[in-house]
Amino acid sequence: MLVLEGDDPELFTRLQEKNLLRQYDLLTNCIEIGLEQGPTAFDKYMLWALNHVAVVGISQFGGRFREEPIYVGNHLPPHFRDVPELMDRFVSFVLENWHHASPPQLAAYGLWRLNWIHPFIEGNGRTARATCYYLLGVRAGKLLHGRKIVPERIRETRGPYVAALRAADTAWDNGNLDVSVMEAYLAGLLGAQLTEDGSAGPVEHAADETGPVAT
Predict the structure, then answer these.
(1) Most buried by CB count within 10 Å: which residue of 28, 174, 180, 213?
(2) First to last CA, the chain
(3) What is the residue extent of each domain of the chain?
(4) Cβ 141 vs Cβ 176: under 8 Å
(5) Is the full-model pTM beyond 0.70?
(6) Contact 17, 56 (CB under 8 A)
(7) Where are the alpha helices (DSSP H) in 59-179?
(8) What is the rounded distance in angstroms from the CA atom of residue 197 to the CA atom of residue 93?
(9) DSSP state, 99?
(10) pLDDT tens-digit map of 89-129
């Protein structure tokens, strides 16, 4: 069962939006599990689930790593043969840096790195944004309040988002890991989410934390 955007743009868009709501429901469940189980709850199986629910009905390969080339504007993602190892390294990096990086640092890495690897055929951006929010919440140790959550705010501020991705790409191409532009961007969005809701929590001050991010 598959709806192609070219065949029925209206239904395709409707499915995308409904899938996004389902993904947010699943994401809340994942965060609740992560808060109970700690960093080891973060694994590729959770990422597969988040991707699958985001692309139901619009992609036949949701919830599995791609096994074919993919092209994203000016960015050429890694060869599909390298994806499984890169994703193992990605998960390992997050776990190894769980207590060293601040919530925005860890979330910035997750958001950039998943976009860089582009491990799925469809729904990479949606999965990366969900992962980013998972890392913000679970690393902070709480369900974050706010009527408009960070993933939605990212969708509405595409210009700064793309600029932050490109800044991290450029640093990586030069042999450095630097997601500071993305970190500052996410910290601003999170602050807006929490301020709008009128609530305060430790994550609001997370951007002020300092700590090494292992390479």
Answers:
(1) 213
(2) 42
(3) 9-208
(4) no
(5) yes
(6) no
(7) 83-96, 103-117, 124-140, 150-156, 158-173
(8) 32
(9) T
(10) 999 999 999 999 999 999 999 999 999 999 999 999 999 99
